[in-house]
Each structure stands twice: as C-alpha cells, then as structure tokens.
Amino acid sequence: MNKQEEISFNSISNSILTPMMKQYLGIKSAHKDYLLFYRLGDFYELFFEDAQVASKILDIVLTKRGKQNGDNIPMCGVPYHSATHYINRLLKKGYSIAICEQLESPEEAKKRGYKSVVRREVMQIITPGTLMEEKLLDSKNTNYLTSIAEEKGNYSIAWVELTTGDFYVTTCSKNQVVNEISRLSPKEVLVSYKLSSDPIFMNYKNIITVRSNNIYDHKNCLQRIVQYYNVNSIKSLGEFSKEQLVSAGALIEYIIHTQKNNLPKLKVLQKLEREYFVEIDASTRINLEFDKNSINKEFNLLNVIDKTVTSAGARLLKTRLNSPLKNSSVINKRLDCVSFFYNKTELRTKIREYLKFFPDVQRSLSKIFINKAIPRDLDIIKNGLKISTMISELLRINGENLIDGINSLISQIYGYNQLVDELEQALIPCDNIIENQAFIKKGYNKYLDELYDLKYNSNQTINELRDKYRHKTGVQNLKIAKNNIFGYFVEVTSLNSSKLDEKLFIHKQTLGNSVRFFTDELKNLENIILNCDTKITNLEKEIFCKLCDKVKHYFDEINLVIDSIANLDFYSALSEIAIQNKYIRPILDDSNTFFIEEGRHPVVENFQRENFIPNSANITDEEKIWLITGPNMAGKSTFLRQNALICILAQIGSYVPAKRVHIGVVDKIFSRIGAADNIAKGESTFMVEMTETAYIINNVTEKSFVILDEIGRGTSTHDGISIAWAVFEYLYNHINCRALFATHYHELTQLNNKLARIANYTMEVKEWNKDIIFLHKIIPGVADSSYGIHVAELAGLPKKVINSAKQILTNFEKKEPVQVKDNYQEDIVYKENEILKILKNVDINNITPIEAQKILYELKSKVNFKE
C-alpha cells in the first residue's frame, strides 16, 4: 500500500552529520515504510526522499538543511498546529505517516549535557485504517481496519473501528473473501507476506498492507489477545477457531505498532456468524448501487433512505444496509420498532428533534480513553448524556404504549445524572470556549479561581499586601516595588527602616535615602504571580484528567447509551422515509413467497421528475422463474433491480416502496447486470460476465433470489443463446430458486413449452403514428421486437444510418443478402475534389473579409451531405 521507497542509509556517512541529523536517521531507519514527521519546535520537518515526496504532493517549498556527502540535504516542513490538513492529503495519496515528537524542551536537554540533543520518539503512526483524528474522519462512515488470515483453506477476517471500539471476526471460504471486503469497505487490509501474493487481493493493492509472516504466528497472536484484554485464558472471551485468533491477534499487533502507548479500548472480540446475514457478492453490490454510483454519488440506495440525524445512527444504517438479516423473527422485531414510530407522528417528531442535537459521543469517548481528548470532548459527552436522558424521559411518558424493542433501549440511556452534574459544574460550554483560554467554570475549584484572580488582578493583590504591611508597621509611605534584578521588594525610607520587624522583613539592599527588604510572603506571592500561567495550565490539566477518569469509569455504560441512541435514530429515520416516500410494511416469513404489488425502484423514483410507473412481481411455485423480453429503455433493468432492492430493504427491517409485499426471506441475492471490462486483470467483458455467472451457478440455493440480464450477450449470437439457455435450464432443474431472467434472445421464450413452472413476461410497448412509446409496464407475454433501431434513433444516430439499418433489418428478416453501399465514399471523393478546386482559386493575399466569409459558407455547404 505504501508507495514510499526505502532510503539507502548505508550510503550516508554519519561522521559528517550533526547530532540532530544522526538522531533523525536513527529514527528513520526504524520507520522506513513511512514518511517521518520530525518535530522541530513549532514545525514537523521532513528530510531526504521524504521531503522530496511531501513537497511535491503538498505543493510546499523544498529547501535544504546541512549537507551529506557534499550534497545539500532536502528539507520541507509544515506547522504542527495545522499538520492534520497536510497529513490527510498524504494519506489520500497512499502514504502513511510516522509522527515523531519532542519529549523535552531544549533547556531540559541541556541539563543532561551541553551538546545533548532533544529527546524525540515516534509517538504514533497514522495509516488509513488507524485514523483517530476527528478532522480526518467522516462522521457518517465507518473507518474499518481489517486483517485476513488463512489456515488450511479456511479464511478468517477480523475488523475493528478504532474510534468506536467495535471488534469482530468471522470465517469464510476463499471465494467469499472478496465479498466480505466489499461488504465492509475497509480503509486498510492487513495480510501476511505469504498471503499477499494470492490473486484474490489483486484488485485491492491500494489498501493492502503487508506484514511479516511471524506476526501471523498462532502462538504470538493468542498471547497478544490475552494480554490486551488482561484475561487468563482466551476462553474468557469465547470460542474462536485458530484462523480467527490469528487474524484478530495480527490486528491487535498492528494497533500496538501504530498507536504505541495510547492504545484504544476495544470492545470484547465478537464472533460474527455469517449465516445470520444475507450473502451478497461484490458484483451484486456494485450492480445494485447500495451506497455508490459510478456516475453520481447521490444516486444510490443509502443516500435515498438515510434520514438519520446522528453520526452513530448513520453508521448503523450503513452497516445494516450492507448486512441484511435472514432471521425472520429478528427482522419482524425491527419492523415492529419502525412501525412504532411510523404510527406515532408527534412522538417521532419530538424524538428526532432531540436526536439532532446528539453529538458524536462515540468518537469523543475513544479520544478520552487514549488520552487525546480536548475539553470539547468532555462537553460532547455531557451534552450527549443530557440529551439521552431527555429522550428517555420522553419515551417513559409513553410507557404504556411502548413495545419491547423500544422499552429495552430506555434503561440503557438513563441514569447518568451524577456524571452529567459533575461535568456541568466543571465545564464552560464548548460553544463559549475561546481557544487557549479557560474551560473550567469559576467556582468549581477554589485554588484555580485564586490563580485566575491573581493573574488578572496581581496589582490589586500586591496593593492589598502593601496595605497590610503599612498597618502592621505603622509606616504609611511603605511601598512594594519591582525591578528586573530583585523582583518584588518592600521599600521604606532610611528613617523608617528601624520600625520594621527584622524577623519578618529581611534586609535586601540599602540605598542613599531608602532601604529595601523582602518577606517570605512576598517571595511566595512573587513566585505565584510569575508562574501563574504555568500553574493554571497544570491545575486545569489535573482537573481535566480527573474528569476524564470519571468518564472512563462509565466507558461501557456510555457505549450502551450510544448503541441505544443509534438504534432509536435508525428506527425513527426508517419510519420518516417511509412516510415521506409512501413506503409500506412488508410481510416477512420463512416461506418461498415473493409477492410485490406495484413495487417501485427507491432510487429512480426519488430522482425521476415524471411519475414512476410501478410494477408487480409474483413469483410462485407455478411461475418460479420469470423470462422477461423487451427492448432496451423499456425498463427491464430497472424492474430487475427494484425487486432486489425491495428485498434488501425488507430484510434490514425497513418499509418498502410498494402497495403490498410478502417475501419469504432469501439467503443470498445475486445480480448479473451490465457489462464491465476488467482490463487490469486482462479480462474482457464476456470473461467478466461468465465469471460472475459461474459464481452464481456455483453458490445459488433454493432460498436465493437471482436477477440476470442479458446472459451471453458478450459473444456470438449462437454461443450466447446456447449459454443463456443452459443457464436458465440449470436454475430451473437443479436449483429451483426465485429468479428474474431478462434476455434479448427471443428463442428462449420457447422454454415455456418445455418447462412447466416458468412464465414469459415482457415490457409493454405502444405504437402510435409510426412512433414507439415505451410504457415501462411489465405484462405477460413475449416481445415481438427489440426496437433497437428505434432506440438508436432516439439516441441521435444520423437518418442515413437509421434508414440503412432499417433496410438491412428488412433483408435479414426476408433472409435476403445485404448489399454493401459505397455511395458514402463516392460522395466524399466528389465533395473533396470540389473543395480543393475552390481553395486553389482563392487569392489569400488579396481576399477581403466579406469574400472570405462567403467562401467559408460555400465550403460548409459542400460538406453537408444530402439525406
């Protein structure tokens, strides 16, 4: 994944380098795979090849610092306070960054020796999968880091989200690895050197990070997991296979490697059973446009249904959309929760108003645990808990009408008043905090208040002490003054010096007309004033750390709050989109039913200006597979996709765009739609088509739902018909799954006479005054034409081409030979000769602008072929 080439350190002579540069090279040699951000004062500096790479990408000045082997050492730098912006740009280019910090000040270094170099150490390695910085993250998306291991043909995938602590592991077959990567959309994938050459990772080179083989040693991985969770036995966490422990252990090693001493708190490792979820392969996810669209990022299912108002809810929706359920009981419990909000408009509206103000508590909580929080994170925790309590109270008012699914969430978002009160008393609201200024409320800590009073009112404090001494000594002209040599001192006239108590006032200096003294009290006050800012900073840090510790004590409980809020957002958002777009509650059970009355494509109808034409699908035991014919642009592909999307929505627990829906849960969804070359792998359109079709045939079951469009179109007509026919028969005879099979090969409609449980359907077309009107309605029957020439005409092909195509088609239908016309070439040659003749007669040196314009018009008329 990392594009950086290693520096040849052996060629660098350390003897001619400065101590600082020697230190740099020592640190760099241990982090060759990363761009090293080396802290120098207020900047992160980069040297040698790192500087050349970074300066080009970041568009910053490449300068120099010192020499090596007679050549200037390239250098560039970025301000540390704005480094996040530059780091993000480097990450997007595929680089990872090692952050090397100063661990002491130059003054502290000198105490160890005059020539001592400031101690520095890499404190964090930032990679795409280990981001913790809020500015680098998308609040609505997960940022998964995954690790893949293999043991005797069994593959295991572990994945973690560092900012939320979610940690899972699952096992799959080799051909399912790509599907899992597609489902998770990880930002970084860890594999061993041994596994990295496996062809299944060829398309993921930009996110692959190769780790040494010994990191994937089972014994080492087991030990890492036990040590991280501080348990005596792995059985304390659950039962895991060998490959699962290896993938999870390698992932923990990488977290330790990148996060150093600031390890995030991960939730207990959970084993995800893949059989609980609908299997959807990578190609199907692309074809159905779950959350991506190659042309327009808004034209996808997630964008349409996402009415969530919290970051946690948005992440949960995306996760569930990518993992539909197979358990009808669990699906119906989700639907019950959506129905609860669907039927309670006033409550839903109020809940969503509260949810809008629920901040991203999850990521702030993680920052607190790894000691990277700022005061704003504590304020976010406080506000999140306050809002969750308000939501809980609002739901409790409706207690008699609550269903079990909602009731179970209430107890998890209530009961943190003590922590909220503590944070409320301590913190100035983050909206009112000015950068680098106070964030602790006045009155929370008496000593801190005194320090601030002293900082802003030091003159008054000195004057109060002066008045105290005047009263005690009776010397009314006693002064407290200050200079750069002595600091603060008490000064009286020589005549009054004898009136001062020698035990209290210690002699400092005698001048011509005055005597100067100091007192222990004055010295202490001076130290306090001079070190006021430092003491304020240290005390605020101490208070801040104590508050963070209190939050850490509630770490698990607050995570339950977040999970509950995310679920409430998920359910209320799905009810909101259902009401807005007139979705209905589907019936889900374990039958083989597939009935959709007046279904609509959720994405197309959302962006289509004119009214969307709904279509029904009723796949029964008598009509197990639908064979669909009809022209392009008539709506076949839209019909296929909408049925798959309705199925997916239903099985995540959502209402669906239709009049009535009854679906027996499907275990897998397959789609073969569209044509796409995989040039990088040397695969043609037809090869891709056949590979995807083979995957479907080899993995489909009776409980699956399959949509196939134009199987066999990437080869010759006879080959294509043969393949499509054979695939159709196989699905019918050997699988008996629910399927929609669209084709241009009208010969396949003959299967209706051979196979009993299939049905022919077509897209309705109306001919009017020699025009063709696509009605976008599916009806029983067989298409009598593909209307390809009409579609070509709509696309704007010249009339001459269209007329020729019509004649050729007529000849084909009459089985007459096609005459190849050469009149196009004759026209071109003739016109060319005329044009050359005109140009030869033009006197360029004497022609007027008007004459030139006339000639130009004449030339243009010559190249406009007659139709």
From TrEMBL:
Any single GO BP term: mismatch repair
Positions with a binding annotation for ATP: 630-637
Entries under SMART domains matching the protein: MUTSac (SM00534), MUTSd (SM00533)
GO molecular function: ATP binding; ATP-dependent DNA damage sensor activity; damaged DNA binding; mismatched DNA binding
InterPro entries named among the record's database cross-references: DNA_mismatch_repair_MutS, DNA_mismatch_repair_MutS-lik_N, DNA_mismatch_repair_MutS/MSH, DNA_mismatch_repair_MutS_C, DNA_mismatch_repair_MutS_clamp, DNA_mismatch_repair_MutS_core, DNA_mismatch_repair_MutS_N, DNA_mismatch_repair_MutS_sf
Domain DNA mismatch repair proteins mutS family: 704-720
Keyword Oxidoreductase (UniProt): no
Keyword field: ATP-binding, DNA damage, DNA repair, DNA-binding, Nucleotide-binding
Family, as annotated: Belongs to the DNA mismatch repair MutS family.
Function description: This protein is involved in the repair of mismatches in DNA. It is possible that it carries out the mismatch recognition step. This protein has a weak ATPase activity.
Name by which UniProt lists this protein: DNA mismatch repair protein MutS
Taxon lineage: Bacteria, Pseudomonadati, Pseudomonadota, Alphaproteobacteria, Rickettsiales
UniProt gene name: mutS
